[in-house]
Design brief:
Strand order of the largest sheet: 3-2-1-6-9-8-12
CATH architecture of the largest domain: Alpha-Beta Complex
Order of helices and strands: EHEEEEHEEEEHHHEEEHEHEEEEEEEHEE
Distance between the termini: 59 Å
Number of helices: 8
CATH class of the largest domain: Alpha Beta
Number of domains: 2
Number of strands: 22
Length: about 350
């Protein structure tokens, strides 16, 4: 059996991510790995002659319309804000989470499995482009138990609290991917696949949850299709992951965020919190029933305003993109609280 190959889905949106990606490619090749890359950001790849396969795909298959799907993945938020008078304010609550990258991730995973099959590989390791490694000798460390059980030949993955598994680094069978994921060239194909998994409903959880359901498949807390790797072992190999997390990702995943600004109703929808977690001021146009205001929200600053029935918010970040955020407080459920601690 061939040594598993390395697959990197290179969604590179800035130079810092590109640098880590370049370092990983060089080091994987140096350590004898076959490296396969798919990217819709890089349209040429002549820097590394040792790359086994490179494919540029100009289509960015991102799910942008959350209204098209029912979202049942939730994220728990809990952090503290410092009030102007020095009081600590504790924010807590849950928000629905949108798996906006699901379609493109599954499409590329299916595509690379087809390519791996053609190259004679039976297994491959998917590596997030911004993982930072302490060691590239993965088969003697993280995946040292590969082949010892039937499940380890299907998928080896690290569990994660709340999301079923980490998808930043895992080993998987080519045939398992091909037998599990259909070819999905259009978003309608993706939606049809989601309906087939959820009794006809257009449910679209976050990618980590979907991946866990498809390739790990917990039954009474025990994985039936994968071998779990201790998280402690993962951290012995990986120095950091997601280091260059984008504030734009936050806005796609969570309606209560737009880029670096938190926007959410709190305290039974009676008040609306705006918190600028960025390094630059943000201009805000705020409107609710019988109340309208325009103001500047300072960097790392926050503001509370009354709200009733609905909220329309436009920040300067949104204005430059022709976007807005609308909150229907009568039909949408929000359970955030903000309390002095």
């Amino acid at each position: 059996m061939k040594k598993p190959a390395i697959f990197i889905d290179a969604f590179l949106s800035d130079e810092s991510r590109h640098e880590v990606f370049n370092e990983n490619v060089v080091n994987f090749i140096k350590h004898g790995w076959d490296v396969f890359v798919i990217s819709n950001k890089i349209n040429h790849f002549d820097s590394f002659s040792g790359v086994k396969y490179f494919e540029y795909d100009s289509t960015n298959r991102v799910l942008t319309n959350t209204d098209r799907y029912q979202l049942h993945s939730f994220m728990n938020w809990s952090f503290t804000l410092l009030a102007e008078n020095g009081d600590n304010l504790a924010l807590s609550g849950f928000s629905k989470t949108h798996g906006f990258t699901n379609w493109t991730l599954f499409h590329n995973l299916r595509r690379i499995a087809e390519v791996m099959k053609r190259f004679g590989h039976t297994h491959f390791i998917t590596c997030e482009y911004d993982n930072q490694f302490k060691s590239y000798n993965l088969m003697d460390t993280l995946f040292k138990d590969f082949g010892k059980t039937e499940n380890s030949t299907k998928c080896m993955v690290v569990p994660a609290h709340g999301w079923k598994c980490m998808t930043s680094l895992y080993l998987i069978s080519v045939d398992v991917v091909l037998n599990t994921l259909p070819y999905m060239p259009t978003e309608d194909d993706y939606e049809q696949f989601m309906r087939s998994l959820h009794n006809g409903l257009p449910i679209s959880p976050v990618y980590e949850e979907l991946f866990g359901n498809l390739f790990v498949n917990y039954k009474n807390g025990i994985p039936t299709r994968a071998e779990l790797i201790p998280e402690s072992l993962y951290h012995e190999v990986v120095d950091g992951f997601g280091k260059f997390y984008s504030t734009g990702d936050m806005g796609f995943r969570h309606k209560v965020w737009y880029r670096s600004t938190l926007l959410c109703p709190v305290n039974d929808n009676t008040e609306f919190l705006m918190w600028n977690n960025g390094d630059k001021p943000v201009f805000v146009n705020y409107r609710t029933k019988n109340y309208t205001e325009q103001f500047l929200l300072s960097a790392k600053g926050w503001a509370m305003r009354p709200c009733d029935t609905f909220v329309d918010v436009v920040t300067s970040d949104m204005l430059s993109r022709g976007e807005t955020r609308k909150y229907d407080l009568l039909t949408e459920q929000y359970n955030f609280t903000l309390q002095k601690v």
